[in-house]
């Protein structure tokens, strides 16, 4: 039994999915649905990834930021603030600040124009990821599709980029979102227009991807297709069709940029091995 619990597939996929299923039973028809992916994420952090304040590594920063994103998403869904433009501005600023926080140790090794160019690139990518997440707002089914793909794609990028913690966390998030997605495909989409359901996955894709680039072996250009996942899912979405068909159509369409990202990472890995 202990060997089974130590199995990476169990720790990153099966147990997070079971934890998500338990929370889904309590929150499926409420605005607290955002707790479902966070249950899966918490499970993998406790079992496989870990968290420490001393030293505050890039991994711990990613974990902390994803939990903050989940807390903010829950608060915003429950409170439904009227000043949406102000909220978006604050969230965008926090997202960019989180990206710089994760990248700070690598940036400190630069100087002159290289420092400012890399810092600007990190901030621009962070803002692109945040803006793209707005395409998942307003439809819980689409938010789950986007969260599922962002989680699994970043997990695959972490695996290819020699970042095991990014791989574990991404697979867990993808599995947790997937549990809720399958439930809505079967029982019908939620009538609640959730705007921030994909926020934890977006923050993780941004920060986990940066961690795999800066501390691992993932090429930076493999991250470029990630901001396309949510807009492509929205473009392909057909809310007037049955939820299972809408999820499949939008999911397969958004799978294209996800596969491009993984293909770029894999080709880079093959080139480095061949060299």
Keywords, please?
single chain, 275 residues, mainly alpha, 76% helix, globular
Blueprint (SSEs and pairs):
Blueprint: H1 2-5, H2 8-27, H3 35-49, H4 58-79, H5 84-107, H6 112-133, H7 140-160, H8 164-187, H9 199-214, H10 229-236, H11 243-274
Helix pairs in contact: 2-3, 2-8, 3-4, 3-8, 4-5, 4-9, 5-6, 5-9, 6-9, 7-8, 7-9, 7-10, 7-11, 8-9, 8-11, 10-11
Descriptive notes:
- With 275 residues, the chain is mainly α.
- The chain has one domain (2-274).
- The protein has eleven helices and no strands.
- Helix 2 (8-27) packs parallel to helix 8 (164-187).
- It is globular and about 55 Å long.
Largest sheet properties: none
Q: Given the helix and strand composition, which structural class is it?
A: mainly alpha
Task: Bin the helical content.
Answer: over 70%
How many H/I helices? Answer: 11
User: What is the overall silhouette?
Assistant: globular
Query: What is the C-alpha radius of gyration, as a whole number of Å?
Result: 18 Å
Number of domains: 1
Strand content: under 5%
Q: How many angstroms separate the termini? A: 42 Å
Pattern of helices and strands: HHHHHHHHHHH
Strand runs, count: 0
**Low-pLDDT stretches:** none
Q: Roughly what is the average pLDDT, rounded to an integer?
A: 89
């Amino acid at each position: 039994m202990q060997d089974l619990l130590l199995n990476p597939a169990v720790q990153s996929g099966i147990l997070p999915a079971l934890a998500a299923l338990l929370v889904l039973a309590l929150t499926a028809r409420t605005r607290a649905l955002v707790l479902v992916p966070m249950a899966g994420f918490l499970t993998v952090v406790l079992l496989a990834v870990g968290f420490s304040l001393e030293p505050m590594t890039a991994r711990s920063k990613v974990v902390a930021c994803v939990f903050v994103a989940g807390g903010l998403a829950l608060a915003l869904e429950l409170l439904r603030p009227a000043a949406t433009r102000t909220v978006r501005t604050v969230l965008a600023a926090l997202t960019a600040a989180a990206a710089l926080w994760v990248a700070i140790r690598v940036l400190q090794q630069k100087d002159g124009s290289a420092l400012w160019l890399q810092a600007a690139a990190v901030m621009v990518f962070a803002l692109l990821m945040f803006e793209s997440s707005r395409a998942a707002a307003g439809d819980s089914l689409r938010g789950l599709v986007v969260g599922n793909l962002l989680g699994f794609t970043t997990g695959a990028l972490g695996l290819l980029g020699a970042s095991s913690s990014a791989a574990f966390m991404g697979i867990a998030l993808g599995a947790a979102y997937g549990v809720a997605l399958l439930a809505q495909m079967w029982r019908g989409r939620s009538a609640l227009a959730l705007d921030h359901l994909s926020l934890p996955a977006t923050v993780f894709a941004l920060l986990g991807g940066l961690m795999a680039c800066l501390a691992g072996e993932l090429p930076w250009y493999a991250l470029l297709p990630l901001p396309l996942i949510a807009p492509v899912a929205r473009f392909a979405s057909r809310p007037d069709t049955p939820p299972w068909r809408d999820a499949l159509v939008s999911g397969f369409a958004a799978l294209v940029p996800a596969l491009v990202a993984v293909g770029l990472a894999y080709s880079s890995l093959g080139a480095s091995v061949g060299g």
